[in-house]
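Notebook p. 47: complex prediction with iron/sulfur cluster.
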Amino acid sequence: MKNLLLKALIRKPLTEAAPAGGDLAELGRTLEQETRRRLGRSLAIRQVDAGSCNACELEIQATSNPYYDLDRFGLHFVASPRHADILLVTGPVTRNMEVALRRTYDAMPNPKWVVAAGDCAIDGGCFAGSYAVLDGCNAVIPVDLTIPGCPPEPAAIMKGLVALMRGAGETALRGKSAGFRPRSGK
Amino acid sequence: MVEILEMIAAGQTDFRTTPMPRHKLTKAQWEQAADDAARGHVSLLGLWATRGAVHMALMDPNSHAVGVFSLENRRKGFPSVARLHPPAQRLERSITDLFGMRAEGAEDSRPWLDHGAWKITTPLAKAAPREGDAPDYDFLPVIGDGLHQVPVGPVHAGIIEPGHFRFTAQGETVVRLEERLGYTHKGIDHLMRGASIARGAELAQRTSGDSTVAYGWAYAQAVEAALGVTPPPRAVWLRAIMAELERLANHLNDIGAICNDAAFALMLAQCGTLREQVMRAAHAVFGHRFMRDVIVPGGVARDIDSAGRGMLEGLVHDIARDFEPLVELYDNTPSLLARTVGAGILPVDLAAQFGAGGYIGRASGRDFDTRRDLPYAPYDKLVFKVPLRSDGDVNARIWIRIEETRQSLNLLGELLRSLPEGDVLVPVSPMKEQREGLGIVEGFRGDVLVWVALDARGRISRCHMRDPSWFQWPLLEAVIEDNIIADFPLCNKSFNCSYSGVDL
Ligand code: SF4
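Predicted complex, structure tokens below:
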């Protein structure tokens, strides 16, 4: 363990500073700015799998690995919907998950945003039309942002969250809906 | 007993290259087969229905010969296999939900996949509109002093799949766990019906995302066997390269995640890093991090060039170098071992009874690996050892993964060295008659079985995919007994069963 820790001290951090034309670092900075502007400190995400094939979950988990390290931007996953600002939904929304998804959403305090991650959550993806699914998140709760992909890559998920924060920030500044609807009251 | 074994031996062909024949059984023979499975004379590999018939895939545990057996002309029900052989229970309950055929004599006839939320009932038979509200699910009663229940899920605290766990505890100790799954049921069997071969491949690879390659390959095997198609050697090698990359990525992820559930986050960060390297290499070489839609019946949809090959060689080298210090770290951290050693013990006899595959079976003495025991190209030409332990605890399941990670690295090196030249795809066309085929592939979690029936136009009339988790999930209920609730995440992670794979 000593050696490992020592090596970690000496070597360059894995966390990517600026791969592919400064994409990720730029992304991170924007994300942080937007998060701060919007919520002061940080943003809490509650993830719900509404019937995914589990690949979407794996990519969301990957945003926490040392390459992406989502936490450093003040974005973190929380266990309870009561602590969450963002509901990150995957899967085509199976009928068997409809109630659980709605209850999770209802348990979140306002303002709140819903992100549909992956083709399934957007419109049912390759499972659309089945008797057992509702063809996407919108059928149950209003979606603020979609992140396409099957599954979306970790970088795309991070980008999506930036877009959401931008939209939310603009909405707040202009005081009107710009396609992103911060939810207030019921 | 002799009868069924003889039938398996008599019908034995190489099921991966020729259509799979079916043995038609009488009711008495069907019951005999169930009894044989219960006594361990044959291993139950799968149990599924088509309209008006039920089928079992059985394996001779000694010769590893495989046969498919059918009981036909059954509209209303069939003699329960689970009555004698409990591992069949959830498969039967699913058959009842989807086809409306009752398992006669079954002890547990509660619905499984059908939670009462669909607008129809028995979607794979003559579907009828549902009447009335969803009934409450009756959890099994628990009687005793000082017991309390802890319901968990379907929405869990972490970023994982949904399912419900009903714990009954005495103080901190779990007296019983009852699982309730089915939340991710997407109706895949229904979507498969009438689908083209290509659409079937798309669905198969989205049945359990972490096993994209294993499902894609098992499905391709089944279709190729049904139609008598042999994929070119280079395609087969590329499939194996992808399968080992998938195993590598998942085992690395699991090792890190199990240790993390024992509050040792350093391991998650380190293993997560290695896993990310595998995913990125997969993306660079095969165009997708999960290598999705690369395997197609007839071969693979894309070839790799020498740069790709070099990149994978580099990956194998780097991971082999960086993984060993992590193994050492695991082995030399007493506080971590204190959590994993002796936790969640799966007894050897239960693993054998359920035919548990993968690291779960191999950590509890079940010496079975499809790659070796039901060999398919290119593994029939490769030399490798199947790790085996019998201590059956969380620690044992970690060590099996460690051994298999090392082995996958070796296999990858060998596969890359011996990659044959040539085409990677041959055409696949329908046979103007009904054809059936079976495919079995060793995924990271265990054996994935796919049985497919194609009509004369090459459309799928029925596709049944049996995830290894069918025979693993029920064992988790047994394993957690007498452990404390706080150790459940650890035990659960060490199993890492698929929800989506069994919910379908
Ligand atoms: S979008 Fe793709 S990866 Fe995500 S849940 Fe659906 S099938 Fe799986």
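Notes: Chain B has two domains: 2-128, 202-467. The mean pLDDT of chain B is 93.
Next step: compare against the earlier run before touching the bench.
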